[in-house]
Amino acid sequence: MERMESILYDAAVRGGVPTLLELLQQDPLILDRVILNCLSETPLHVAVMLGHADFVKEILCRKPEFADELDSRQSSALHIASQKGYVEIVQALLQANPEMCFARDVNGRNPLHLAAMKGRIEVLRELLKTRPLAASATTIFGETILHLCVKFNQLEVLKFLLETMDDPEFLNAKDDYGMTILHVAVADKQIEVIKFLTTRTKINVNALNANGFTALDILAQSKRDVKDWEIGESIRRAGAISVKDNNDIHLSVQELGTRQTNRLTSSENNKKQRGKASKSFPEKEDDWLDKKRNALMVVASLIATMAFQAGVNPPKSPLQDSSSPDNSRPAAAPVHRSPTLGLIFISQGFYTYNTIGFLASMSIILLLISGLPLNHRIWMWILSAILWVAISSMVLTYMAAILIIEETENLFSNAASAIIVVWMIIEGIIYLWHILRLILRMIKYFRKSFRIKGRSDLG
Asked: Out of the domains of life, which is the source (predicted)?
């Protein structure tokens, strides 16, 4: 018996129909015994795998139940024939048992899934003609036959199926990860598939997957590629937006509906305007404030250190007695040098400017570490103005120190003093320009406030 079964399998490999007929004459029950003893592929599986159509038809003619048999991977002969693209064999198997269109292998794929994966359009046509509902089945991962077409880059099969089925709901179906076929196409960067879906179908370009991402978000998170720009343009032209933009639009629509159904009071309008202004680029605003605070702290600390050192180690003052020992005079008889009135004022100015710079910088440090809520631009402007005073004071301190050391009242006695005077003039012009700018902003602010108040009074 085992020898006859071995001969039968050998005949299936060769497609030897005469050998099959001879075996059946010798043992009419040989096919029944093979079905009972088969642990993996039947002779039908082997013949289908090798495309021996006559051998397949002869077996099915004598034992149609062979079409129901599954191998170790839960694949039927129809699975194999569909995957191989043997149309004639598929037709014979469908006549034997059309319900095998619904049979699923270990991956949850039926014969239609395998035909789509391999691009077998003619086989698909036969299977759809026999059992069209089998095309709606999903795999163990929730993938539809359309997902498999995209996953295995079978654009022509995808076009054929969409023309045949024409079901928008099936077109936008999601797998177990919430991925539509557009998500899959974008993730795999299949440009031709994406162009077809966005221009020739009713695909939902803004569908969300299980993680809440649209196709545009998938593209942004994927590895950079030269195709990215073309893919992005294709889906954007179809109306694709990111999940962030989608949330913003949703909020805007809600706000518009609220305004249409409820008339807002003037105070609510003002609050909404302030809220909108505060929400525009909040991260950039916070980042700007942090950088500004850090810069103010560094500069103020540097100026305070400079002012402290200048205060405890002042330059030689003309007010102090200048005694030089002389061999002809006793040591107790100092030589007094009388400073001019101008030098006295300059010496006093040195301490005054240095003290102003020191206290101004210390005031900035104190305000920044005080814990006061300084998270507003107006406070930054105030602190910047104080820093401006501190810097100007240190420049005047430096100029006074130079005049004291040289014991001169002439501001243009040397190049350093002259440069400082010119610098102070330029600083004064810039400072005046900032004041005028601040005045203009305040005028615009008050005009806008009066305008809004006037509208609210009229309303």
From this structure: Eukaryota
Beta-carbon count within 10 A of 308 CB: 14
Helices then strands, each counted (H, E), the chain: 22, 0
Give the whole-angstrom CA distance, residue 185 versus residue 191: 8
Measured at the CA of 331, the angle between CA 327 and CA 332, to 5 degrees, comes to: 150
Q: What is the mean pLDDT of the chain?
A: 81
- Which residue in this structure is represented by tokens 């109306």? 239
CA distance 459 to 453: 10
d(CA 240, CA 384): 45
The answer to whether the pTM exceeds 0.85 is no
Exposure string of 40-68, with b = 16+ CB inside 10 Å and e = fewer, is ebbbbbbbbbbbbbebbbbbbeebeebbe
3-state helix, strand, coil in the chain (%, to 5): 70, 0, 30
Q: Between helices 53-62 and 43-50, what is the axis angle to 10°?
A: 150
Encoded tokens for 54: 């006559």
Digit-coded pLDDT (tens) for 28-57: 999 988 888 876 889 999 999 999 999 999
- 193 compared with 458, residue with greater pLDDT: 193
CB 57 within 8 A of CB 92: yes
pLDDT value of residue 7 = 92
Phi, psi for residue 153 in degrees, rounded to 5: 55, 50
In whole angstroms, give the CA distance from residue 289 to residue 295: 10
Query: Cα separation of 71 and 105, whole Å?
Result: 9
Q: What number of CA atoms fall less than 13 Å from residue 154's CA on the CB side?
A: 22
Rg (CA), the chain: 45
Phi-psi region of 166 (alpha: psi -120 to 50; beta: other; left: phi over 0): left
Indicate the burial class of 24 (C-beta count within 10 angstroms; 0-12, 13-18, 19 or more). Answer: middle
Per-residue b/e over 185-218, b at no fewer than 16 CB within 10 Å?
Answer: bbbebbeebbbbbbeebebbbbbbbeeebbbbbb
Average pLDDT (409-415) is: 64
